[in-house]
From TrEMBL:
Residues 37-68 are annotated as: Disordered. Residues 140-222, 311-415 form a coiled coil. Keywords: Coiled coil. The keyword Ribosomal protein does not apply. This is Coiled-coil domain-containing protein 13. InterPro entries: CCDC13 (IPR038929). GO terms for biological process: cytoplasmic microtubule organization; non-motile cilium assembly. The keyword Coiled coil applies.
């Protein structure tokens, strides 16, 4: 009876009202004082039951009484040990509350550096905290209901699985595993194909770039180093290509041929004039000689004299004509050989012009195709880079959301722990 009476007294002393405990926990102005902290930290004194002196003086100790006393003292000792452990738990919980409230005080000081928080602000904060506590309790209850529903559904599924045949279970498990494996294989194959396509596109773009460089070099060799290819393609320069130069050379050849034909005709007319002059000269001389012979009186003597006098001149004239004819023949042969060479050159130039024009057309087509392929490759690379950046942004946003969710879960878990702790304190004080 005495033990129960003492325990009841202790409970009456340590049993605070719940509203006053709330005020002690959330009243931030009172927590600043050191006296309140000492009151929170210091445990209550345990009132030991008074030892009755009458029993010792009135009745002598018998063996039964000693056994009863030892039992009561052992029970008291156990009760005291239990109370001591309970008080230690309460003190640890109070220390935790004090630390939490100190953190809150520091946060409030950082938020309000001008001065201490007024009672109105504290009251609004208490109301907000009460609302949060209610919301958290409602969330807890909803979570509990969800948990119960899920546990029920899990139990139902377990019962169904137990009722099912082991063959069906194994078959379903195998089907699931096979489907998962197939999905993994398909995803891996898709990944490998995408990477392979990317590598092929990169290699093709490099090959196309090299082909472009080669085509530019060939064009520079054909056109010249100091010629701008872009201006040639646009058609804004006065540059003449190989074909145009060949056409100009052909025109020059035709003009030269015409001049040659004119020179030959003029040379032939000159030769005829020279022959006529020579024959006229000879005829005049013969006439003069005849006249002289008539006047001299003998034709035979005149002929012999004429032959003797003008034989050397005739020989000299014939020699000069032969030399002129030989020279003209040689010059004609040289001109003909030059003409043949020029014709061969013109034919070779025509062939080369046709070959170069075909090569130029093919090179232009290749350049166009290469430029188009380069544009398409650049567009593909830009699209892939954009997709990569989008995936990076999505991953970063997901990581940020995950961090926020973890922080919110931690804060909610702390608040739920505090709420459970308060409920536990309330239950321990009343029960």
């Amino acid at each position: 009876m005495t033990n129960r009476h003492n325990q009841f007294e202790y409970e009456e002393e340590s049993n605070y009202d719940f509203d006053t405990r709330k005020d002690e926990v959330f009243n931030l102005n009172n927590l600043v004082d050191s006296s309140d902290e000492d009151e929170i930290i210091k445990p209550k004194k345990i009132t030991k039951p008074p030892v009755s002196s009458k029993k010792t003086s009135e009745k002598p100790k018998t063996p039964m009484n000693t056994n009863l006393d030892s039992l009561t003292w052992s029970e008291k000792f156990r009760e005291l040990q239990d109370e001591n452990t309970r008080l230690r738990k309460i003190s640890a919980e109070k220390d935790y509350e004090i630390k939490y409230l100190k953190k809150k005080l520091d946060e409030d000081k950082t938020l309000f550096p001008d001065g201490p928080i007024t009672n109105e602000v504290a009251a609004t904060k208490i109301i907000d905290l009460g609302k949060k506590c209610r919301e958290l309790t409602a969330q807890l209850e909803s979570e509990k209901t969800k948990n119960l529903k899920l546990t029920k559904s899990i139990k139902d599924l377990e019962n169904k699985m137990d009722n099912m045949d082991p063959v069906k279970k194994s078959y379903d498990d195998e089907n699931k595993e096979n489907s998962l494996k197939n999905e993994n294989k398909e995803l891996k194959e898709k990944l490998n194909s995408l990477t392979h396509n990317l590598m092929e596109l990169k290699s093709q773009s490099e090959i196309l770039k090299q082909d472009l460089k080669k085509a530019h070099k060939v064009l520079e060799k054909e056109v010249g180093e100091h010629v701008d290819i872009k201006s040639l393609l646009s058609g804004q320069t006065n540059w003449k290509g190989r074909q145009q130069q060949i056409i100009l050379l052909q025109n020059k050849l035709e003009t030269l041929k015409k001049k040659m034909s004119l020179n030959e005709s003029n040379f032939g007319s000159r030769l005829d004039d020279d022959d006529l002059n020579d024959t006229g000269f000879l005829m005049n001389e013969t006439r003069n000689n005849k006249a002289m012979s008539i006047y001299s009186g003998s034709a035979v003597s005149a002929r012999t004299n004429f032959d003797r006098m003008h034989m050397d001149d005739l020989k000299r004239i014939e020699r000069d004509k032969r030399e002129k004819i030989d020279k003209l023949k040689k010059e004609n042969e040289a001109f003909e050989s030059d003409l043949a060479k020029m014709k061969e050159k013109a034919d070779s130039l025509k062939v080369r012009v046709s070959v170069l024009s075909n090569e130029n057309k093919t090179l232009k087509d290749q350049v166009k195709t290469l430029l188009e392929k380069g544009k398409h490759d650049n567009e593909l690379i830009d699209i892939l880079m954009k997709k990569q950046n989008q995936f990076k942004d999505i991953i970063e946003s997901l990581t940020v959301q995950n961090e926020k969710a973890t922080k919110e879960i931690q804060e909610k878990s702390v608040e739920v722990g505090l709420f459970i702790f308060k409920n536990f304190l309330f239950k321990t004080t009343f029960y």
